Amino acid sequence: DFFLFRARVQTALANHDTAEIMRIVDPGILNSFGGDGGGDEFREHWGLSDPDKSQLWGALAFVLGLGGRFLADTLFYAPYTMHDIIGDGFETLVVIGSNVTVHAGPALTFGVIDTLAFEAVTKWREKSTTAAWEPIRTRTGKTGWVLQRHLRSPIDYRAGFVRRQGQWRLRTLVAGD
User: Fold this and answer.
1) Within a 10 A sphere around the Cβ of 4, how many other Cβ atoms?
2) Which of 70, 73, 86, 136 has the most CB atoms around its CB within 10 Å?
């Protein structure tokens, strides 16, 4: 039944259907690590009074699109990038694709020095010198550059769903630690 629920959520996201999203939001939803939570805070945090400008549609759709994991029959967390990550959440990045190339510099014109698939890497430098590329270090110690669109932080937005009284609800949608 989670598959059907997820499809319903994805349809609501695609249609910017605030009413449907609010129906699946748990009354005690955790929206951040500093607020009181709840549906009103969720609505305000995501700017649902002006649905066309809300960032919710893209953020939650991306999280769900990455897949997730059941922690129990009644708990599902997405995306998969938040689970089983070794290392500091601020320094670790997860490769979200297969055949992701690591380049010797921050451009496609630099040679390919490695290929990665669905694995953790660490940040190589404190800051990137370019908006599109991230300097990383692989598990084997190679340093290079990967397009940022192929990387995700394990502490970026993540969602938790709980099944209570036969219904799935969005229980958490948070970023950070």
Assistant:
1) 9
2) 136
Residue in 123, 148, 168, 177 with CA at minimum distance from that of residue 29 = 168
The structure tokens 């994991």 sit at 69
| Runs of H (alpha helix) within the chain | 2-14, 18-24, 39-45, 56-65
pLDDT digits (tens, 9 = 90+) for 44-61: 999 999 999 999 999 999
pTM: 0.82
pLDDT for the residue 103: 97
Distance CA 159, CA 171 (A): 7
Long-range contacts of 33-37 (CB under 8 A, 24+ apart): 33/174, 33/176, 33/177
